[in-house]
Predict the structure of Acetylserotonin O-methyltransferase-like.
Amino acid sequence: DTELKKEDLQRIIDLMDGFKSSKALFTASKMCVFDLLQSRPGLDAAQVAQEIKASVKGTACLLEACVSLGLLKSKQRACQKPVYENTDLSSRFLLSDAPSSLRGYIQHCNDTVWPLFSHLESAVREGANQHEKAFGKTSKDMFQDTFYNSQEAKLRFMNAMHSIAKVTGRAVATAFDLSSFKTACDLGGCTGAMAYEFTKAHPGLSVTVFDLPAVVEMSEHFRPLHTDNRVSFVAGDFFKDELPKADLYILARILHDWPDEKVCILLSKIANACTAGCAVLIAETVLDGQTPYSALQSLNMLAQTEGLERTESQYADLLSKYGFGDMRVGYTMNFLDAFIAIKM
Ligand code: SAM
């Protein structure tokens, strides 16, 4: 059994090549290849190169890589050059204006996560994020000094959050029966994408999105076509300011940004605002010791934030300190799982 199994070798090759696949996807997305081939399917490499203002050699190479990854299809008639079109997968997730577009998040992965991951070794040695090495910025306040340090950076971050929240929001909003709750507060609710999914799924629920003033001032930019007057926005700092009153507090991708000390400050404020029967709903990818998605997402948090991902029992321990019980977890098989706890 020292014989090399073909599948094992392939598995290692896939792991070694993962970064090449990611970067090919990011590059094609950034250069608008998928949007172009949606409006003009059937272009050859030279035509694509001209449109995206790139070399023919490089474009042909990138297009073939996308074909091999299932992101494009190519057709070739006898003696002619191959022509390209999108696959169903890229039409669903990679176009700028698709309802389930992940383009905003892909751009964040390329521009922010990729440089941070090139310093992963330092992140592991230091147990700290790598904004200073990757971007030359010292940050006292993670959001103000890094993610929101220019209008462009802020919009890019908000677009990234928006795209994941849109794709995952319904699964989170319907993970539990929430019919007994009339008012919710989405703490760090960003663009409101998650809040709109909650009101869509629960006709009796109103949601207040609470986020930093710099974020709330952009909320109009992300308002859906069919406005929903059950979603409202309040600006503030959830570590310092009074929290809006609600029956249900939503924390979607908030706790994974922060170390336990700061999570405890936030949970104690929420607990003080809650009466018995109120609830906290946490949306995070829950570490389960098996799936690479949550474990790799935890490395992502290490390189990018002050936090990390946590297990179900770590959430349960944190919440029980503040008088929450009757906890349940819903594994959604989407980017985010859902965890609910009731104030006793
Ligand atoms: N909940 C959104 C989602 O899941 O799409 C956004 C998650 S994003 C990782 C973290 C959010 O927390 C950002 O919108 C950020 O502006 C907000 N935030 C960070 N610090 C905050 C603070 N001190 N007070 C209020 N909001 C804060």
About this structure: The domain at 6-93 is CATH 1.10.10.10 (Arc Repressor Mutant, subunit A).
